[in-house]
Amino acid sequence: MPINSIVIRQLNLCPWKSVSDAMHKYTIHRNNKSYDELWLVEHYPIFTQGRFGSSKHILEPTNIEVIKSDRGGQVTYHGPGQQIMYVLIDLKRRKISVHQLISILEQTVIKTLSYFKIRAHNRLDARGVYVKNEKICSLGLRISKGCSLHGLALNVTVDLTPFLIINPCGYANMKMTKIQNFDHDVSITKVKYLLVSEFTDLMNYNYIKWQ
Fold first, then answer.
1. According to UniProt, where does the site described as Lowers pKa of active site Cys lie (predicted)?
2. DSSP H helical segments within 157-206, as ranges?
3. Active-site residue among 14, 137, 147, 169?
4. Shortest CA distance to 89 belongs to which of 29, 34, 36?
């Protein structure tokens, strides 16, 4: 039955807009028999601006495309080497709130980072996951028809330079970090499987189908 089942899709490296369009299409057409899904993807370089985002957080001209998103939050950067996990979850069916899902996503990342001996934490005043005072994972969600879209972006081996020309997530002087700064041999494949394992465990899914 779909209520305790989830489908995992590995999309690899894809343009942001094509994945966003597909995510919205899935949500529009899903019903109570549709499976929850996790989409694992990396994006070509792009800045995305949340639906209430301000252009003032882009600090200088850039050749990297800036595109509007309907997720929450301000501006962030996506690029190869950043593991993105989009969570297409029927919250009503799972009987969890948006705040509970955010907490589960943060705990998913914190538990994943512990495998690399990285001590991480969340912040209630600025959602996401941090190592000391540096941000390693950003979160942004939208809820439609009681279902979630978008998800988390965890910096694994991504080039952090583009973050220098924005206020990441709307916070001036926010420093970013990545797993590679702590484990030079980290692979995004390993991170991907750890994220799925931790998330599905925290969400109590008992049937997991990889596609």
1. 135
2. 188-202
3. 169
4. 36
